[in-house]
Amino acid sequence: MELQQILRNVQEGILSVEEAETLIGRPGYEEMGYAKLDKDRRKRTGFAEVVFCSGKSKEQLLHIYESIYKEEGEVLGTRASQEQADYLQTYLPKIQYDASSRILKIETDDKKQIGKIAVCTAGTADIPVAEEAAQTAEYFGSFVERIYDVGVSGIHRLLSRTETIREANCVVAVAGMEGALASVIGGLVENPVIAVPTSVGYGASMNGLSALLTMINSCANGIAVVNIDNGYGAGYLATQINRLAEGGQN
Question: What is the pLDDT of residues 78-116, one digit of tens each?
């Protein structure tokens, strides 16, 4: 809870002075034994803490979600399993799960979406990673235009959407195989391109390493590269760029 809100709650009689002192004097995180929830992250960075669900027990995940939801009124988690989603939905009916992106979230209904981010994929098989990026950006308040299956093997598909892509404050290019999509887009637009290599491809693609190396070695300007299959990282960075382009709104 922000300091102004705490003081406002004291003024309105919602909190006692003693309760306010406890909240103001807390260490900035909640100790849960197996986790230390960073309650001040939004204040420092503009974004609340996001949960990486993979590897956590269902019970741990439930307690983490309950705590963040109580603090923020919403919560975003990535790389969640169907089993985890089914368990949490029993206790948190508002929670939503997308099996493609593996996003598990509770989101406010009145969220304003600003600016524009274009999320492009080379192929349909890249969509799960692209959706992780798109839904992350939307959760953090960005408007997202999805442009899927526009890889270089049929480049006319991409060229038919060039004007739409150029309107975006930032472009996320998601591609497996040889990962050429980011370089092509980088040569067509003036705004930043975030390249996301995926683990899609045959043997010599080496689970995304080939695409990663292509993107890192791109001769096109204005391209930044995140890790293999890291749609969340791309969506987060794209939102930061989009906010700056829109005057720092959040």
Answer: 999 999 999 999 999 999 999 999 999 999 888 889 999
**pLDDT above 90 as % of the chain:** 73
Q: Which residues pair with 104 in a beta bridge?
A: 77, 97
Task: Please classify residue 20 by burial: count the beta carbons closer than 10 Å to its beta carbon, then call 0-12 exposed, 13-18 middle and 19+ buried.
Answer: middle
Question: What is the residue whose two structure tokens read 């197996």?
Answer: 34
Tokens of 93: 């009916």
Q: How far is Cα 156 from Cα 153, in angstroms, rounded to an integer?
A: 9
Strand partners, 37: 30
Both tokens of 193, joined, read 């391109």
So what's the pLDDT on residue 166? Answer: 96
The whole-model pTM stands at 0.86
Contact 79, 51 (CB under 8 A): no
Beta carbons of 137 and 157 less than 8 angstroms apart: no
* Residue 29 pLDDT exceeds 70: no
Note every long-range contact of 59-68, with CB atoms under 8 Å and residues 24 or more positions apart, other chains counting: 60/34, 60/35, 61/87, 61/88, 62/87, 62/88, 62/91, 62/92, 63/32, 64/32, 64/35, 64/37, 65/92, 65/95, 65/106, 66/91, 66/92, 67/30, 67/32, 67/37, 68/37
